[in-house]
Amino acid sequence: MILLLGASGYVGQAFARELRRRGSCFIPLTRKAIDYTNFDLLFDYVRRIQPEFLINAAGMTGTPNVDACEVAREETLAANTLLPQTVARVCLMNNTPWGHVSSGCIYAGAKIVENGRMRLEKNLNQPEVRRLMAEHPERVFGFNELDQPNFSFRHRPCSFYSGSKALAEETILETGPSYIWRPGMPFNGREESRNFLCRIQKHSKVYNGVHPLSHVEDFVRACLDLWKRHAPFGVYNMSNPGVMPTPQIDML
Question: What is the pLDDT of residue 244?
Fold first, then answer.
């Protein structure tokens, strides 16, 4: 049996749909049912039901977007950093393997091959960089799991949201058997405020950026497959191939 935290959220609902499709036995847990931010309550609950795997899809992304996290810093830190620490301790003490939904937003830019050498370019909006990406995509590389996050509290400037997600990874890494799953900007065909495609169409303020994307259903299937296939525990960058500028997305 699988325990799913944050089952009412955008990614959490996608996990629930996929688990139902697979016929998996799971409990979709929300904070209305139990305050899983409370260590004692979560510890007792996990000890009692003894899940074979736990998924933490809970967190704060801000409403209407991550800009809200700059104001609601206490809530953001509690949801994105402190909660994963609580889950990690609970799972370690109950010997429960688990997976944590992190974010690919802890990286900025890309690695570019120039004159036979690779360099980091954080500003992908420059015209010459855009041309390079369009004409020579083979010279532009994303980040892998061995690359340290470069959009975090340790590498300012960063958003508070990204900093809170990167800090969570630091605190839970290697704390018992666990996966850290990093999606890109999440999207799918559903009308949902967290859907990246819906956000850029409806919000008055849209940043002109270059984004790695993750189709939510692809993402959750890959996460569950890692667990089912007994893949090594650790960190996994899990966006779909390629990147896309915001204006190009607007034309879809």
Answer: 56
